[in-house]
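Budget justification, computational time. The allocation requested in the original proposal was used primarily to generate structure tokens for proteins on the priority list. As evidence of use, we reproduce two of the resulting records. The first is shown immediately below.
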Amino acid sequence: MHKRIMVKKPLLFTPLPTCTQSPGTHLSTPYALARHRLHVSTFPPSLPCCEREFSEVYSHLSAAIAEGIGSCIYNSGIPGTGKTTAVREVTTQLQYLVTLKELGDYIFVEINVMKVTVAHQAYCLLCEAIKGDHVNPSQALGLLEPEPSTPCPRRVPCVVLMDEVDQFVTRS
């Protein structure tokens, strides 16, 4: 009798490697330039019309990280308006402050719900990112539940971006 050994594939959390265009892309025609600028790997040099939102998210997250308190921001709007890009830019700016030692260190975890097949997998991904543990959803929830309410001066704050979280909403 042979035992069948099954190896569970570990869950991956985003950000995943993205496709990038080569810098030598020939942009001689307006079509080529538009195609380059609209490619999913292209990030704009600035976020026009998002200054107020950027400022609100920035001040909210920097204060929460500096004070070590739990906080939540819900950012909603029409697809393609730069919500995710704005939050990523905020975390980039905050990470720059960390390198300058003007802000304490923090963990950034991005979970794209479109890549999660079952809502409870989000707990597993979060637990893996924060604690490094590969566990089932109920174990992950048990490990994560005391985190925000248990004071610990040595704990590194964690910023979690749950992208496309509205995909979790169903009739059932």
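The second record produced under the same allocation is shown here.
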Amino acid sequence: MRAPRRTLITGLTAALAMTGLAAATTQQASADTALVGWATQGGGTTGGGSTPPTTVTSSSALSSALSSGSPAVIRVSGTISCSGMLKVASNKTVIGNSGATISGCGFNVTRASNVIIRNLTFRGWNDDAVNVQYSTRVWIDHNTFTDGNDGAVDVKRASDYVTISWNRVHDHDKSMLLGHSDDNGSEDRGKLRVTYHHNWFDGSNQRHPRVRFGNPVHVYNNFYADNGGYGVASTQEAGVLVEGNSFENVDDPYHRGEGSSPPGNLVARNNHLVNSGSGDAGGSVNSIPYSYQLDAPASVKSIVTSGAGAGRIPI
């Protein structure tokens, strides 16, 4: 693990401070844009790479671009209303222009690899906002999810090497499921390795995440606020490291077992608990194979609330 983050003050930042613009610059700088975590493994995740971007403004154009067999960088402009799930093929970067919104539908990343989804607001979806299955090397970053029907981001069915970072979930129930069934071990054992970092679970209710089989699953530097159900649940052979997160007004920050699923392993360390329960941890978790930088847990609230969600990264 790298040393804790230190703020660097450049000559440009100092000059902006003299003109009163430093606060805005600091806020933008707090939203890291680099890929970290499991999606760096297995060859890494580059999406459409340097392919010239295509801008889409309709559901038909978006669906066509997402399902193309060629690498693509797809820029979403405006609000696109749709229903059901739009299939996402391999080697795609989907990034929203300012204010870009997907309303009423979601993305189905299935039997794909090397996919990036960034800077979009998903609302009112009727299935999942983002469903990842039988897919590898997926990065879901700086999106906002609100008021949908089922999962915001669900990862299942032998998927692997996934990073879910800097997203905001609010006014929603089931946030992030990892592993859909206790009976799917033959496909899922040794896979479902996901990193969740710097996400803002803002009054959302449960599954932040709910984990089966994946080991190690890394949940670090997320901010949990006013979650009515629970924060993290480790079940059915899972191993989850819950590290350096901030929980505020969360009665049940993390536990083992959920519903009919038996307890998994959960290691909790260096979490910041404010008006929250003590959590339930036990067992051991496999080691984390990648480098990462851990923010001070007491600073996570300010860092995440200033950087998570759509509209927080340069586009």
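A brief technical remark on that second record: Confidence is low (pLDDT under 50) at residues 1-31.
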